Amino acid sequence: MKKIIVAIDGFSSCGKSTMAKDLARYAGYVYVDTGAMYRAVALLAIENGWLTEDYIDEENLQKNISQIKIFFKNNAAGVQETYLNGRNVEREIRTLKVANGASRISALGFVRHQMVSQQQLMGAEKGIVMDGRDIGTVVFPQAELKIFVTARAEVRAMRRMKELQQKGQKPVFEQVFANIKERDLRDTTRTESPLKQADDAILIDNSDITRAEQQKILEKLFKERTELDIQ
Fold first, then answer.
1. C-alpha distances in angstroms, 145 versus 34, 58, 82, 167?
2. What is the SS3 assignment for 218?
3. Are the C-beta atoms of 60 and 123 separated by less than 8 Å?
4. pLDDT tens digits along 77-90
5. What b/e string do you get for 123-149 counting C-beta neighbours within 10 Å, with b at 16 or more?
């Protein structure tokens, strides 16, 4: 059985994690949510006072970055959760505040280098689906299947709204939409590993397709790359 690396990149709130989870489950592969890794770093920085709304204490963050250990573990229901230095932080990292912080600290070179190193170790033996911003361009430029996903900003803002509401939060659409646009600008213009479509990545705009339709596209692409007909 031929194992490959699947790299899924794209804009925030495009459903990359859902897409990657569905494909990993279908293929029997390991799934890695790299966005959760940057959120975990942001959470730690916020908790230690190294990251505020208008300041990043780069000196202390860099001093401690090598001590940050992140791993993923399935809970009793089979749902993957994020652990930061042995602590389950899945719920804490899914807030809008942490998401915005993650977008800011991910622009720092020393943070990206540390996370990329951990991510590359996770995919050393292939059989992995990884989503993020620079997986196909920086982390695994040799990935056999690269996908770049996008959707209209207003569609992504509505998806993010629903996600936050399901977590018991009360988001305001205008704030969520502004945050989406701000993150897009930051992700695509940062000096360190900016978000961009790899030359050999397949573009998927999921603004107007269902999750089932998206899954069919992914399964077809996966079969083509692995030459494996999974029933």
1. 17, 35, 25, 33
2. helix
3. no
4. 888 899 999 999 99
5. beeebbbbbbbbbbbbbbeebbbbbbb
How far apart, in Å, are the Cα atoms of 194 and each of 39, 149, 206?
17, 15, 22
**Which pair of tokens denotes residue 60?**
């202390």
Joined together, the tokens standing for residue 143 give 């990935």
The pLDDT tens digits of the residues spanning 140-173 come to: 999 999 999 999 999 999 999 998 898 888 899 9
- Selection from 160, 161, 179, 178 nearest residue 170 by Cα: 161
**8 A C-beta contact, residue 192 and residue 116:** no
Residue 88's alpha-carbon distances to 36, 70, 71, 74, in angstroms, are 12, 10, 10, 11
